[in-house]
Amino acid sequence: MSPLADRYGRRFPYLRLSVIPACNFRCTYCLPHGYHADAKAAAPLSLPEITRLLRGFTELGMHKLRITGGEPSVRHDLTEILRTAAAVPGITKLAMTTNGTLLSKRLHEWMDAGLNAINVSVDSLDRAAFARITGHDRLEDILHGVDMALEADLASVKLNAVLMRDVNDRELPTWLDYLRDRHIGVRFIELMQTGDNLAFFRDHHVRAETLEAELLDAGWQLLPRAADAGPAREYRHAEYAGRIGIIAPYSKDFCAGCNRLRVTATGDLRLCLFGEFGIPLRPLLQSDDQLEELVRAVGGQIGRKEQGHFLHEGRTGITPHLASTGG
């Protein structure tokens, strides 16, 4: 096994695979007008293509896989994708990020297929604010699904909330009440500029360090970063069962700990969420005989990964919105 490593010494055991670009939400920071399919776009990778892709990445040392979208539950064969991924030798953690609209209905089906970690996007615990942000009044049902996941002893249950000034940036007390007795993590994610949200970004961007300072003042303590962890700086407090993670892409040295690669729903390798190019892998996913060629192709591209993103310069690469690459 040859672990993927770049010229800066970073290793990449973690793959985020988008299985569909479509989403059934209309989040203000991502798809405010809803998802509109491109009639000329290629279909998402088929199940056999996904299987070959995952085999290639595990040959290179990938062991943590996160299924993303768009919204992955929009895809009718999601359960089969999870079952197939769980059966690939070498994958030890199978996670998914979802808006949770089908969580209460499909949780146990997904767990039976092999899912052992889930992140649910919940940008506000206020019902009206949640509906304004997402375009859907579904908070109660989604939180019911989250409670089901906690009761089912899923190995990892986390919530994601995108921080937005004058939208949801004053809700920390409500979140603390929620975390007091729940063994759950919430990640506050700094709003990021993408190709088509510049005006929204300028109106609502707030630095995540502001919230981080509030936590430190309230006695929360920073935890050591796990080897296969994502980009969150995680905090704990003795009086709370839950934990808080801060994802601050505009902070200094944010990319130094990067440990993931991305593949879009149509099979393009993205070395960075905000990269300037994609590398088409789909031609190498048409036959089991192409495994060695796929491994060489992926391994040969890692040297092109930049040391960091260029968000500070307003360069968002080829990412029009987060749904296009799974965030």
UniProtKB/TrEMBL annotation:
Entries under Pfam families matching the protein: Mob_synth_C (PF06463), Radical_SAM (PF04055)
EC numbers: 4.1.99.22
Catalytic EC class: lyase
Keywords assigned by UniProt, alphabetized: 4Fe-4S, GTP-binding, Iron, Iron-sulfur, Lyase, Metal-binding, Molybdenum cofactor biosynthesis, Nucleotide-binding, S-adenosyl-L-methionine
Top-level taxonomic group: Bacteria
Keyword Membrane on entry: no
Swiss-Prot/TrEMBL catalytic activity: GTP + AH2 + S-adenosyl-L-methionine = (8S)-3',8-cyclo-7,8-dihydroguanosine 5'-triphosphate + 5'-deoxyadenosine + L-methionine + A + H(+)
Cofactor(s) the protein needs: [4Fe-4S] cluster
Annotated residues for binding of [4Fe-4S] cluster 1: 23, 27, 30
Protein residues bound to GTP: 16, 66, 97, 158, 260-262
Pathways per UniProt: Cofactor biosynthesis; molybdopterin biosynthesis
Domain Radical SAM core: 7-233
Binding site for [4Fe-4S] cluster 2: 255, 258, 272
Binding site for S-adenosyl-L-methionine: 29, 70, 121, 192
Cofactor stoichiometry and binding remark: Binds 2 [4Fe-4S] clusters. Binds 1 [4Fe-4S] cluster coordinated with 3 cysteines and an exchangeable S-adenosyl-L-methionine and 1 [4Fe-4S] cluster coordinated with 3 cysteines and the GTP-derived substrate.
Statement: the UniProt record of this protein carries the keyword Metal-binding: yes
Quaternary structure (record): Monomer and homodimer.
Family the UniProt entry places it in: Belongs to the radical SAM superfamily. MoaA family.
The protein's role, per its UniProt record: Catalyzes the cyclization of GTP to (8S)-3',8-cyclo-7,8-dihydroguanosine 5'-triphosphate.
Protein name: GTP 3',8-cyclase
Origin species: Dyella acidisoli
